[in-house]
Amino acid sequence: CNNRVHGSSFAHRGELRKAKRIVIKLGSAVITRGDECGLALGRLASIVEQVAMLQNQGREMMIVTSGAVAFGKQRLRHEILLSQSVRHALQSGNGQHKDMSVPVLEARACAAAGQSGLMALYEAMFTQYSTCTAQVLVTNLDFHDDEKRQNLNSTLQELLRMNIVPIINTNDAVVPPPEPNSDLQGVISIKDNDSLAARLAVEMKADLLIALSDVEGLYNSPPGTDDAKLIDIFYPGDQQSITYGTKSRVGIGGMEAKVMAALWALQGGTSVVIANGTNPKITGHVITDIVEGKKVGTFFSEIKPAGPSVEEQTEMARNSGRILASLHPDQRSEIICHLAELLIERKDEVLVANKMDIEMAVSAGRLPSAMLKRLSLSLEKLNSLAVGLRQIATAARDNIGRVVRRTRVAQSLELEQVTVPIGVLLVIFEARPDCLPQVSALAIASGNALLLKGGKEAANTNYVLHQLTQEALSLHGVREAVQMVSTHEEVEDICRLDKMIDLIIPRGSSQLVQEIQRVAKGIPVLGHSEGICHVYVDADASVSKVIKIVRDSKCDYPAACNAMETLLIHRDILRTPMFDQIIEMLHNEQVKIHSGPRFASYLTFSPSEARSLRTEYGDLECCLEVVDSVQEAVEHIHKYGSSHTDVIITENKETAEQFLQQLDSACVFWNTSSRFADGYRFGLGAEVGISTARIHARGPVGLEGLLTTKWVLRGEGHTVADFSENGSMKYLHENLPVA
């Protein structure tokens, strides 16, 4: 329910979800086919479906439609051609032949012929969704005459009260041709359906006006020009920053008319979005996406935010990132070392902010204990972070511009493959503020620009840590290379910036990673959706190693993605002292055991059976299952694991090597805890995440995983023609030593 007092429009896109009364304006280009003769039925059907769905949610929907002229034109052309062909047939006996061309049709006549058919079509479509419609034809005079305007208002109010969708159009059979702009004293004249929709939206105190046409929205210069950029949010004071292109392919309302109408509606308290209703990729959900607050088209807002937009932040980060990449390696190291120093020097500031976040999370009661642990920072954690950052600072001295391959292609023609930054990274993390300085340091070391999108649970901590990061970057004038994205920004909208962001790294729950992988269109995602790690205890395992490794893998930090979730036991170990010791240790550590189906079959009274063998518990819980051999263990892990980290405990080297070679996981360990799957423990300094992908980086991803390469070819006027049959040069392709 929307309790907003009408008179002030919504400030942010996210608030559009609260819109109760919505006007949908369908431009001629949306309604009509490309030949402008007849309707785009498929497009119209998908729009009707969305409007009906929103109406059935309890919203009050109104449609301002074009299309009567096009519908009538199709009908009249058909009638004229039919009558001409009849006359032609009658006259052909006399040897008379007349031109069969169709005369130019007058628009008002077309509207008169098409209006009833258009309405009948709407009625038939909405009936499929048990939604009733009503036709309302208006003219400019209906708004200028107070009595008529009040009658129109009361009619529409009554229709909405009865859950009917009013379908409004100008009475094109009687309206005069459009006149020059005659807007006076804040009254907008009805020259086209844009101004009609705006006038109607304000008159009916609508919360939202969605104007659909054949352009994506408002651009800072005419669409199609090289520098044209879609404007996400348009403010009343921004008219000077844009230029207008031509009007729509059909209809009489150009973009300037749309902007004038939108600003007039905005001034009257109605929020406005101008979007494309003809794009087949989005037409089926364009209206519902707008109402859900997604970044579609141009949103008109009266309130300009204090900070830059996410697009502007991305541009700032990229520009500053390029300077960062060009710094001397020692300068990048100095920035990271300075950040490590600031973490310790300003520890009180960080911990006070973190305490505020924890207290708010506890009082809200929404965070599970595992996430609360991740949210919490301590002096010990800050010291550990500082040590990790100094490791990264050391590694930062020789990574960018490192030659990984050199080839003498021909005489005086040498090719080098050198390391370079990926570009702009977007790291999305939940309640884990320690992630911020880690990934910032790795981005700085690798010369990458960085966008950070933290969870609101850690907003205070993240703010302080980001301030420290930018303070460190200021040491060498690259403060803007690391940007914190506002919590107002929807993750899905940021993930659509495929022309601005080069790599997305989600850090958080499997649900977060899966959601990012789903919505990231055209941007690679580095990460893993789940951490279902297995420890397999072989028949030849040492009991002392088993107890140590299983305890550490499960109990050291149960919320970590590299914690053990499933314990696989060789069948021969059942009912042995070793098995009893394992169970006793897990019991003492208060680990809840969920039995797999095979293990449960061996027991008279089994623990609670696992709901799924593919479960990431993230707490002091694990699944216990039985297998007959190492081969069966490998097959089980391939079927139920997540290709993250898996461990074998055995004294049999041959069995261990079989496990290590056959298992297809990012990390495979022998006689060590799964908790070693960590960038810091691998000596990477820190990690941006653990990847289970098959290409690019895999396993714990540190500095190397944030670099790509480019090819540099140095010659002396060489051309491909030099190497033709008649040319003077031959290919050598000699591998040269890398300095």
What does this structure look like?
- The protein is α/β, with parallel strands linked by helices and 739 residues long.
- The protein has 23 helices and 24 strands.
- The strands form five sheets. An eight-stranded mixed β-sheet has the order 3-4-2-1-5-7-8-6, sandwiched between helices.
- Strand 15, helix 19 (543-555) and strand 16 form a beta-alpha-beta unit.
- Helix 7 runs parallel beside helix 8.
- The longest helix is centred in the N-terminal third of the chain and has 24 residues, at 68-91.
- The protein starts with 20 loop residues before the first strand and ends with a strand.
Which secondary structure elements does this structure contain, and how are they paired or packed?
Layout: E1 21-26, H1 28-31, H2 41-56, E2 60-65, H3 68-91, H4 107-127, E3 132-138, H5 141-144, H6 146-161, E4 164-170, H7 193-203, E5 208-213, E6 233-234, H8 255-267, E7 271-276, H9 286-291, E8 298-300, H10 310-326, H11 329-345, H12 347-364, H13 369-375, H14 379-395, E9 403-410, E10 413-421, E11 424-429, H15 435-445, E12 449-454, H16 459-473, E13 482-484, H17 491-494, E14 503-507, H18 510-519, E15 533-537, H19 543-555, E16 564-570, H20 577-588, E17 592-595, H21 597-601, E18 621-627, H22 630-640, E19 645-649, H23 653-662, E20 667-670, E21 689-691, E22 699-701, E23 707-714, E24 734-736
Parallel strand pairs: 1-2, 1-5, 2-4, 3-4, 5-7, 6-8, 11-12, 11-14, 12-13, 15-16, 15-19, 16-18, 17-18, 19-20
Antiparallel strand pairs: 7-8, 9-10, 9-24, 10-23, 21-22
Keywords: Amino-acid biosynthesis, ATP-binding, Kinase, Multifunctional enzyme, NADP, Nucleotide-binding, Oxidoreductase, Proline biosynthesis, Transferase
Pfam family, one: AA_kinase
Domain Aspartate/glutamate/uridylate kinase: 20-276
